[in-house]
Structures are given as structure tokens and as C-alpha cells.
């Protein structure tokens, strides 16, 4: 006689909004449409977004990822090269032009807005203070909009405390778009304390998607035995969500790229699971993780939603006449 083994109950608090933001969606669409329009290969400088699954899905369609433009072979110079959503220094499009390459810029419009704010500070004679993570592609791209020596990078309040500008009364700041809202507020407050004449950017630099994802995780985290963030280890906004979940009351929070990474012995028996995804993580992996829990738990999904996002960014003019179908994006959207 077979005795059915009952599965332990589990409530999954699924955060909304989660996953792809408009800038990431646009960047992936640009590569997909370029492949449809120009055929393979389409070259992409740097990971188009920080997610291995997305990169591998685009490689399967014919995209070739390179770190620098000199890796593009001579026989493929007529094929398009796409610049990643994180933005690039001014030297990169200049290099592409010098090499007679046809490029499509997939920089997120909100990152481009930060570039413009930094350039405005510079034009008005202010030294630019950039709040961000050293070595992140977005930070490299933003610093690369301005002449060398006109931007200083700070990451923490401790950095602000030791920062010694040449002209303390003539500073303007901008921030990376994917930072912790709360941490950044502390850094900005300390900058204002030390440099009362500091000029803020015309608009908040941290993007709406980063803010929204952090806000809903904050609300969903209290009482969670475990909070899972779907995202890559090199994704700044995903790592911030792990920190936000812990700070807001989750007993434990982890970053995973795929369901196969889940350590079930470590997870054990839990009653409430929080689940969200960074802005570059596809919905198919969120679904994959929900299904993995359903095989082991009697899981019910509750939507924890704060706002609905309806932003949409147009792709490059050269691609707007190409039809983008649901099938084209099924590899990330399901």
C-alpha cells in the first residue's frame, strides 16, 4: 500500500515589481532585433546585461560577446556591434567610428540621463563627485564622459570623511543608478554635512526600477524564513536586494542564478519564502524557482505588490521597423 507523503506548507511572497526593467528589456530587444535585421553574428561589447542566462540565450541566437572592439574580426566589420545597457566611456564610440564599425548603443536612457547630469555639472565648472562602486561598468562609463581628473568616486560614508577636494565650495554629485537607496541617502547626507555648497543633480540618479524593487522587498521581508533574489553575482542591483531583505527582517537572504543552485539541505523546512528578481533577471528563472519549491512543498503564492511599472523605452531608430514577436523574447519571458 502506497502512503502519500504530505508536503510541508509554504507561503511564497512573490514581489512585484521584479525582474526586467524597461532599460534591460530594451537592451535585449536591441540585440534580438539586430540579429533579425542584419543576421548573425551581431557583436556585443561586454555583457548586454549582467545575467548569464540572458547572455547564453543571445549567444544561441547568434550574438558574439567581446570585451573590446579590437576582438571583432576584419571580415565582420560590417556587422553591427551593440554597446551594453550599462553605458560606455566616450572613447568607445570614438574607437568604433575610427574602425568604421556600425554600432547600436543600448545604454539605458536613465544611465544616459546621469551622464548628462554629470556633464552639466562639469560644464558649469563643478568638480563631479560620483557615488558608486569602483570597477562597475556603469561607473566606468559615467567617469568616461568627462575629462580625466574632473570626477572623484566615493562609495561609502568613510570615503566621504577622507575626501579632500581642491575646491570644496564647487562640487556637484551624481550616483550610479543601481545603488541601495538607504545607503546612498547616508552618503549624500554626509557629503552635504562636509560640503554645504554641494549641488545635487537636476533629478534623482537612482532609477525608478531600483527604488521600486527595493521598496517591495522591504515590505515583503518581515517574517520571511528565507528571501531569494534571482540575479547574477556581478549584478549591483541584485546584490543590493539581498542586503535590503536582511535589513528589513528576513531571517536569511540568498542570491541565486538558477534553481539548480538551491541547497535544499541548507534551506530545510521553512514556512514563508520571499522571492524577487534583480532588474536583469528573466521571469523564466523566477518561474523555475517557484516550480522547484512546489516539488518539495505545498506552496501557495501571494503577490506582494507596491506599484505597477508601465515604462517603455523605444529601441534605436534603425530597428523600429522590425517586428518583435512574443516568440522572439520567449527565451527570457517564457
Summed up, what is this model?
With 334 residues, the chain is an alpha/beta fold.
What secondary-structure arrangement, pairings included, does this model have?
Blueprint: E1 9-16, H1 22-38, E2 42-45, H2 52-61, E3 63-66, E4 81-83, H3 91-98, E5 103-105, H4 109-123, E6 127-131, H5 137-143, E7 151-154, H6 157-162, E8 171-175, H7 181-194, H8 208-220, E9 226-230, H9 236-247, E10 253-256, H10 264-267, E11 272-277, H11 283-294, E12 298-305, H12 330-333
Helix pairs in contact: 4-5, 8-9
Count of helical segments? 12
Strand line-up across the major sheet: 10-9-11-1-12
Shape assignment: flat
The amount of beta strand, in percent, is: 15-25%
Question: Which sheet architecture does the biggest sheet show?
Answer: 5 strands, parallel
Span of the ends, CA to CA? 40 Å
Succession of helices and strands: EHEHEEHEHEHEHEHHEHEHEHEH
Derived structural class? alpha/beta
Using DSSP, what is the number of strands?
12
Explained architecture:
With 334 residues, the protein is α/β, with parallel strands linked by helices. It has helices spanning 22-38, 52-61, 91-98, 109-123, 137-143, 157-162, 181-194, 208-220, 236-247, 264-267, 283-294, 330-333, and strands at residues 9-16, 42-45, 63-66, 81-83, 103-105, 127-131, 151-154, 171-175, 226-230, 253-256, 272-277, 298-305. The protein has a five-stranded parallel sheet with strand order 10-9-11-1-12, sandwiched between helices. A four-stranded parallel sheet has the order 3-2-4-5. Strands 7-6-8 form a three-stranded parallel sheet, sandwiched between helices. It is flat.
